[in-house]
Amino acid sequence: MRFVRTIDLETTGTRPPAHAVCEIGWQDVVEVDGRWEIGGEHGSMLIDPERPIPAVTQAVHHITDEDVKGAPKWRDVAKDILRPGEGCIALAAHRVSFESRFCTPELTGGMSWICTWKTALRCFPDSPSFSNQVLKYWRMPEGLDRERALPVHRAYPDAYTSALHLRDMLNMKGPSDLMTWTELPGKLPRVPRGDLKGKKWEELRDVQLIPFLTDRDPDIRYSAEIEAARREDGPPLKVRRPEQGSLL
User: Fold this and answer.
1) Looking at the chain, which residues constitute the CATH 3.30.420.10 domain(s)?
2) Spatial contact of 225 and 210, defined as CB atoms under 8 Å apart
3) pLDDT-based confidence at 213, cuts 50/70/90?
4) What does the alpha-carbon distance between residue 244 and residue 149 come to, in Å, rounded to a whole number?
């Protein structure tokens, strides 16, 4: 039986090794007779981060130093959760760029990833936003157990919510496409910031699109490049590259 393990982490901050995991949750999505379903294993575990949890972080997930006192260490349990054995074709998370900072290849055994944020950009481009929670309420995925999906910003409820989105995208596109899209920058359906925020790329005039082709954000740049390529049958876009400074 093939399955994808969806995970979510709660941490003391965003940058290891200065910060560490204080909770992990997981929910498997399994293939049954050619369809993907919520099933298999699920659970959560508090983790001793071996350092104080800052108050600003406690205010997000409400996990306190007292809660993790005596909990297992990340290095002692991570491999058992992140390497679930035969049949697991990938790990998934809503922002793989975050989770993979803590779930390193050494811990995952080099497992492939599916980023449900990147894949949602392509599968649900009309969503007003692409956070896990906005997708949940905008889509109201079939079978959603609202109590199971709460509280937000705790590892299992968030993993469960991500798994619902993943289930539907696996049934729409299959794992190969989702893994391929994960390896690419995010394909944003709309301009994310600035005076043109909210505009679809195809609505921009050439002169408006050109600055985005050299944007420092790889997701913005990639999305603009896709639109520029779509227009390649028309007059070429003249991209002004940043000038190289002189050493003299």
Assistant:
1) 3-183
2) no
3) very high
4) 51
CA–CA dist 40, 30 (Å, integer)? 6
- Residues 27-70: pLDDT tens digits? 999 999 999 999 999 999 999 999 999 999 999 999 999 999 99
3-state secondary structure of 97: helix
What CA–CA distance (Å, rounded) separates 77 from 72?
7
pTM of model > 0.85: yes
Domain 3-183: give its CATH code: 3.30.420.10
How high is the pLDDT of residue 245? Answer: 46
Provide the H-helix boundaries in 16-131. Answer: 55-61, 74-82, 96-102, 105-108, 116-123
Q: How many helices (H) and strands (E) does the chain have?
A: 10, 5
38: nearest Cα among 173, 162, 178: 162
Question: Among all chains, which residue has been given the structure tokens 């590259």?
Answer: 241
- Distance CA(39)–CA(3), nearest Å, equals 9
